[in-house]
Amino acid sequence: MNAVLEVKNLRKEYGETVAVDGVSFTVGKNEIVGLLGPNGAGKTTTINMVLGVLEPSGGSIAIEGIDVRTRRSEAMQRTNFAAVYAQLPGNLRVRESLTVFGHIYRVDDLKMRIAEVLKEFELEKFADTKVGLLSSGEQARVSLAKAMLNKPRLLLLDEPTASLDPSTARAIREKIRAFAKSGEGGVLWTSHNMLEVEMVCDRVLFLSHGKILLEGNPKTLAAEHGKKNLEELFITVAREPLSLELEK
Amino acid sequence: MYLVRDHPQRLFQILVWAALDIVLWGFITKYLNDVGNAGFSFAPTLLGAVVLWSFLGRAQQGVSTPALEDVWSRNLLNFFASPLTVAEYAAGLVCASITTSIVGFACVCALAFLFFGFTVFWMGAQLFAFLMILFIFGVALGLLGVSIVFRFGPSAEWFVWPIPAVIEPFVGVFYPVSVLPGWMQVLAHALPPSYAFEGLRSVVFGTGAATEDALIGIALSLVYLAAAYVFFVYIHKRAVRSGAIARFSAENSF
């Protein structure tokens, strides 16, 4: 498989506490991988290490074969992200914000690309509005527009539809799915919405206490473990991870 | 630039305090000239000192303010999770400082000339050397301030603004370093701005070695700049180890 992201034996310790414990996985080209798990399972810690803003205690991360630890800037050139906790500056207009990040990501023909993402995320009428004046759903779309600006090979999305209404969330899911299927990129996606995960992801990884507990096809994984649906499986992972570990 | 264009009031913080200092010290200088019978004009030493001191303040704030804008708008994660390197981020702050320092200096000089007919340009090349000392040291102070905020969180912003005021008594802005008590003189000799202001007085009174002062001052400023940059990089690395960049918000810190 052509992996855009390859994570091997990733580990993060904070003193005695192990937040991520020997996690290994890949994200392939044209693949959407769901990183699932209860709060505190280590999802955001993993994403932060992939983004190079958190130093792993052990293991390695490579984006298109580029080691994040030694060639972070080069690896980030091929990556982008959107997260509910990383809003764009509220005091800049949408177009200004995209221009700033377009320069940082060294996007070619920036004006044209900004026009494309504004159209793609239906933000044209907000182009000259300050980001802080937009609704949370509109701000989420601006964050996604920024995340798509450099046509990343690896797109990291931490609960990208958390603040969106069902109709906008569906539209965004379709766009991200189209992005993954048509281009050269892969997506690592975290969400607590199991219905969404089932619709969007090709593969899911369940994290619990910093370890990957389960991995598989979101459409069949629940049944494989005797559960009614993915949500029930999620609740089992959160409440009784040991029972699933014993199954293994 | 977008922020200054959309919010011209941001220019006020670049200009207002310096303009007030010029007006205040301009009249003090005028008064001292009238009553002092000193046999020389106080303008070059006092008003000249205000012009130069305000330049250091602009250089320092030129670095600190854009970084604080990133803190206020919670934009640090977006920047540090991008291809941007720490060196590029610091270089961006320095570029912002160059712009605001030049704008501030031009305005202060214009005010000093318009209100009091005073100019600092008669010093020629030596003025450039003194400005270099103050700019480099101002940038070093700016990086130190940003590092403090990144280390202790947004509430440590309070430490950024008074840094120049804390240094001011030690560097002989308005009086020769020789009038200070011994322990203050030791500190004065370790601080680059002292060499700019001692140099300024040497040029005005035709005494001492202004060029030598300028060279020592520039060399010392570069040492401070290097130390401040190393400290800034260390604080960033520490934040990457602890994960504080991702968590940096209202009361968190690197």
Structure description:
The complex is a heterodimer of chains A (248) and B (254). Chain A has 248 residues and is α/β, with parallel strands linked by helices. Chain A has 2 domains: 172 residues, 3-Layer(aba) Sandwich (Rossmann fold), CATH 3.40.50.300; 65 residues, no CATH class. Helices cover 38% and strands 26% of the residues of chain A. In chain A, the strands form 2 sheets. A 6-stranded mixed beta sheet of chain A has the order 6-7-8-3-9-10, with helices on both faces. In chain A, strands 2-1-4-5 form a 4-stranded antiparallel beta sheet. Chain B has one domain. Helices cover 77% and strands 0% of the residues of chain B. In chain B, helix 2 crosses helix 5 and helix 6 runs antiparallel to helix 10. The longest helix of chain B has 33 residues. Chains A and B meet through helix 1, helix 2 and helix 3 of A and helix 1, helix 4 and helix 11 of B.
Structural class of chain B: mainly alpha
Give, in spatial order, the strands making up the sheet with the most strands of chain A: 6-7-8-3-9-10
Globally, the shape of chain A reads globular
First CA to last CA of chain B: what distance? 27 Å
What number of domains of chain B?
1
Order of helices and strands of chain A: EEEHEEHEHHHEHEHEEHHH
Oligomer: heterodimer
Overall mean pLDDT of chain A: 90
Structure described in brief:
The complex is a heterodimer of chains A (248) and B (254). Chain A is of the alpha/beta class and 248 residues long.
